[in-house]
Structures are given as C-alpha cells and as structure tokens.
Amino acid sequence: MAESMIDQAGLEAARLLLERMGISPLDLVAGASARPAAPTFAEYVPVVAASISAGLLRAYGTYWDRVVERWGARPIDQVSPSDIRALIVDIKANRVQRRNGRGGRSAEEHTIAALRCLYRRATADGFMSESDNPALKVPKPKRLPSTRRALPDGRLAEINEVATTSGDDPALDGLLIRLHGETACRRGGALALRPMDLDADQCLILLREKGGAFRWQPVSPTLMTHLQAHAAERGAPPSGQLLRYRNRQPITRRRYDHLWERIGARLPWVAAQQISAHWLRHTTLTWVERNFGYAVARAYAGHAENTGGDVGATAGYVRASMTELADAVSALTNEPHPLASVRG
Questions:
Q1: Does any domain span residue 147?
Q2: Does residue 100 sit in the same domain as residue 239?
Q3: Same-domain pairing of 190 and 121
Q4: 13: which of 34, 219, 250, 274 is 20 to 30 A away, CA to CA?
Q5: Helix (H/G/I), strand (E/B), else coil: 237
Q6: Domain membership of residue 81 as a residue range
Q7: Using an 8 Å Cβ cutoff, are 270 and 277 in contact?
C-alpha cells in the first residue's frame, strides 16, 4: 500500500512538472527518437565480423557460426538469456573432447564473450540499449586455476633436444623454442614479428601482442643474430612476417601444432600434460619473478601496469626499467647485453 502511494505521488509530481513546462505526455512520445529495426543474426554477424581484428575473429568466429546456424533468421533483439543458456548447453555437448578439457568451461566462456562482443556493437549501433543486452545477464563461469607451471631445466633440455634434432625444419623449430623460452612472448607476438622490428644495436625486438599492445623486449645477442640470419636466409621482407618456412612462406599457428605433436610423440610426458609454447612463457616468467621480483616479471610478461585488483594500488607505481629487463635477459642467457647495468 505504501509503495503504491509513493508511486502515485511520483506520477503526480511528474505530471505537475510537465504541466509547468508546457509539455504533455503525448509530446514526449512524439518527440522520442525511433529505434531502427534490429537486423537478423544472419545479417548482422558478417557486419561485426568484418570490423574486428583477425585475432578476435579467430576467437569468436566459430561461436558466431553456431549462432547464425541456430538463430540466423531471428532479429538480434529477440533472444533471451534463457535462449543463450540453451545455446551454451548445446555447444558444450557437441564440443571437441580434449585431454586437458575442463567440462566445457572454455566453450561456455567463449560463447558468452562472443555474444557480448556482438551485442556491444548492436548497442553502439542503436539497435538496443545496454539494459536490453541479454548476454550481460548470463554470467561467465568462474575461471579455474591454470594447470600450467614452470618446467625444470632437465625437461626444457629434453624439449630442445627433440625440437632441434627431428622434423623437417629443426632450425626453425629450434628458433621458435629459443624465442619463446628467452622472451616469454605469446604465440601471436612471435608470428607478428617482422625484420623491421629488430633493433640489432640495442638487442631489442618489438613485440605486438594481444589487445594491440606494443612493447620492446631485450634479447640476447645470440638470439638477435639467429633472427637476423633467419630473415635473410628465408627472404623475409622488412615489413613482412619474419618467421618462415624454407620455401619462404610465412609460418602459421599450425607450425606450433605440428611441433608439439612431434615432441609429444617422442616425449610421452609432453603429450600427457599437453605441454605447449605457453608453458615456456610460464617457465621464464617464474624464473624472472623468483630472481628479479614481481615488477620485472610483470614487465617481462608485457602485462598492463595498471592491473590493480589483487595486487593492490602499489602495482601502478612499481615500474621496471629497460635496464632491469636487460639484466634479467643477461642473467637468463648468461650473455652480456648492451643495455644491462653490467655489460661484462
């Protein structure tokens, strides 16, 4: 009863204010801007797909295909949170079963992320308001701790031995292992590397990684020499991809798949634990953190400096210098570096 009285009082107050302003409720309706008719998923998904980066398209494209397959003729504003949950159940039930799978949590997370990306664009284009976004009403699953961890030196030696003594291009595979093990770069950063990104005088490489981030990463003189030689021998143009096959074609992500499948065939523990290049990143960053501290490890990883959150506001003030990164590379590789505090 009290709530009804409050509502009625609010309505009366609104009417009184409109009367004083000389505005009628009909004027408000007539003056409201008409929202454009929402397109169907079949119409709108290609529009969004054409406007995002190649990396995002790789991540979301498969899920958008499923969306179009299921709701292609339906307008994008005619989907409820329950519809999205039903889609997730279907995708999880038909996912590719992997040895390191976690019950479809990744598929669920990526489905929601793909739909949120789509609906953010729909909101920006005026097809709906943010409060109407159904994907925001479906929570992402809580992430479980990663099973990846730092590998001991003996295991790293085994991996390097197989990579550099087997396969159809051991020189390429050995370079990949060294690049990831020394720089802790992501796979995308390695694939995006160009000859013009090499600063040979200062032994720095420019890494372009996820989220459009750019960073200069110190490398050892030995790695710099191998990168330059690889680019020259395989005809990499200055602004083209550096890492290439013997036939001078740029490598793709499939090279990593083949590499770890081959290593896993010779080292059963690699196959059993689903070891990949990202484990090398974990290994290197763990070593850097243990020996040079959190700030240097964070910069070495290329993580944002304003993460805050679980590490507190202090993290925004603690920045590692290029000299400190070069010191870490020098200690890791046992080679002098031109930017290190001690140059040997």
A1: no
A2: no
A3: no
A4: 34
A5: coil
A6: 41-137
A7: no
Residue 212's CB: how many other CB atoms inside 10 A?
Answer: 8
Tell the residue number behind the tokens 């159940």, with chain if given.
Answer: 89
Count of structural domains within the chain: 3
Tens of pLDDT, residues 259-292: 999 999 999 999 999 899 999 999 999 999 999 9
Q: Is the dihedral of CA 295, 281, 217, 200 positive or negative?
A: positive
What pLDDT is recorded for position 213?
Answer: 81
DSSP tag of 242:
S
- b/e burial code for range 301-336 (CB count within 10 A of at least 16 → b): bbeeeeeeeeeeeebeeeebeeebbbbbbbbbbebe
pLDDT in tens, 32-83: 556 788 999 999 999 999 998 888 888 899 999 999 999 999 999 999 999 9
Residues in the chain: 344
For residue 144, tell me if it sits in a domain: no
CA angle 287, 289, 291 (to 5 degrees): 70
For 319-337, how does the pLDDT look when each residue is reduced to its tens digit (9 = 90+)? 899 999 999 999 999 999 9
Question: Are residue 102 and residue 10 in the same domain, yes or no?
Answer: no
Instruction: Sort residue 211 into left (φ over 0), alpha (ψ -120 to 50) or beta.
Output: left
Are residues 24 and 72 located together in one domain of the fold? no
Q: Which domain-ending residue is among 137, 164, 199?
A: 137
